[in-house]
Amino acid sequence: MILYLLYWFEYVPLINNDHFSRSPNEIPVILYWTATFGTYFHDYIKKNPIDQSDCPYKCIFTDNRSSTEKAKLVIFHVRDLNETDIPTKARKGQFHVFYNMESPYHTGIAYKRVPRNFFDLSMTYRMDSDVLVAYDRFDAIDNETTKEEVWSWGEVQAKVQAKSKHVLQLVSNCHTPSKREAYVERLKRYIKITILGQCTHRACNHATCEQKEIDNHLFYLAFENSICKDYITEKFWQIKNLIVPIVLDRKIYKDIVPVDSFIATNDFDSPSDLARYLTLLAANRTEYLKYFNWTRSYKKQNVNRRISSYCELCKIAHTRKRAGIPDITNWWEKQGECQTNFGMHHQSTVTRREVYN
């Protein structure tokens, strides 16, 4: 959660209220009504100012509630929402934004206690959100890409040759709706897994430790705590550190990332079959390297993600005339397509031939 909070603070700006007082009628105001996991944006941004010059739309971001009447958008981080502390009524042309990066299983219940049509716009990880706030994405190589932004094949090969261990898991949530822990218990009967984090007595609490372990391992268990539509967190995006992610359910990823860049548990009939395949890959680095073909098409990092989400918010503030979500619970929960206990009731749903065709 801390990693996500830092990510959001880094990529969403909050403009000093002094700016607001200079031009209240010229630039749309976007108000953050709640904190995010208990921390207010203003406290962070004072120490970490963010340049919004790359966005063609200009907005004023604030958490000062005195701006409520003037705000075009009012953002509610639903994990911090208090249903007794909300604006009484949106003025005409003002939109309430449902903002959340956790799965429906970890959203809380306060949002269900406000009128079901209270929210007008969505800002989440889901691809069908009004504003997509993805944890990360692949950024394609183009004619303006510099050499420093891409992995050379020699760099990839050197990273791979330095790996000496099989499977890594960094985990802090020990009991999950996806029951990933049940699958791990079965998998580790057949292959060595290095498990670090709060669910073990082996800590790895800083970036240097994590990077060292990733550099030493071939595979990373990117098992999410929830199996829900489009729910792909920073766990998967360790892929950019040149490790092959193993995910629970292939269909969550198939339209978002290259299908040959990761391994899914439901590509196999059982944990023992998966372990056998991983062992074969570990012994054949030529085959293993095929999982890094994505480096020929995508950059090391997504350099443009800095402005994308807040710029889309700002665009909406300038251009959107109508909005509405008739029933937020239906949209978030029923259309969220979550599966419980996936790790306990797993079975293969595709063949390996289907994966790559």
UniProtKB/TrEMBL annotation:
Main location (coarse class): Golgi
Entries under InterPro entries matching the protein: Glyco_tran_10_C, Glyco_tran_10_N, Glyco_trans_10, GT10-like_C_sf
Annotated ranges, domain Fucosyltransferase C-terminal: 161-331
Span of domain Fucosyltransferase N-terminal: 28-135
Record keywords, A-Z: Glycoprotein, Glycosyltransferase, Golgi apparatus, Membrane, Signal-anchor, Transferase, Transmembrane, Transmembrane helix
Family to which the UniProt record says this protein belongs: Belongs to the glycosyltransferase 10 family.
UniProt-recorded name of the protein: Fucosyltransferase
